[in-house]
Amino acid sequence: xxxxxxxxxxxxxxxxxxxxxxxxxxxxxxxxxxxxxxxxxxxxxxxxxxxxxxxxxxxxxxxxxxxxxxxxxxxxxxxxxxxxxxxxxxxxxxxxxxxxxxxxxxxxxxxxxxxxxxxxxxxxxxxxxxxxxxxxxxxxxxxxxxxxxxxxxxxxxxxxxxxxxxxxxxxxxxxxxxxxxxxxxxxxxxxxxxxxxxxxxxxxxxxxxxxxx
Length: 213
What we know:
Blueprint: E1 4-6, E2 12-15, H1 25-45, E3 50-53, H2 59-68, E4 73-77, H3 81-89, E5 95-99, E6 118-124, H4 133-143, E7 144-153, H5 157-164, H6 184-191, E8 196-201, E9 206-212
Parallel strand pairs: 3-4, 3-6, 4-5, 6-7
Antiparallel strand pairs: 1-2, 7-9, 8-9
């Protein structure tokens, strides 16, 4: 499954390319490093409950729900056919999905959860899509008690790799829907406003951080 998610006003807000299930050997090798690093940071955080903002088709939250056993896991994302189809395929007794309101999804504005309701809040390959990442992170930090776990494409490497494979040349290699672009240093600076960045990882070609609140 490949494509984009589009809000009700026609704004591209995300991608539906199944990178976790890809059979492309290059993608599989890159994703192996990505998933290994993500698992290491998740284990380090040792959460008892998780809120995942922009959970996509539910691959990660399903994996985390099985890993936590009885710990609560909530995934939230846009109302979009391919996303909800994925949710139907990734079910667990301790896993709940919620649909963002279309008009507010891009900013994760006013998340419908109490302060400190979750142990950890995550946004995995999401913040590059939102118009106001500072606000989104603020809401995530409000809803989480202990940690944030976040990842974004590492720039300008990401766009350079796109151009090297002949993709998105008119947009100088920018993936559709990517509104924000961070180097590892600038991303660390952004997250430092919300807590202590305790781990900085760079699985090629991403930046991944664990932040203690």
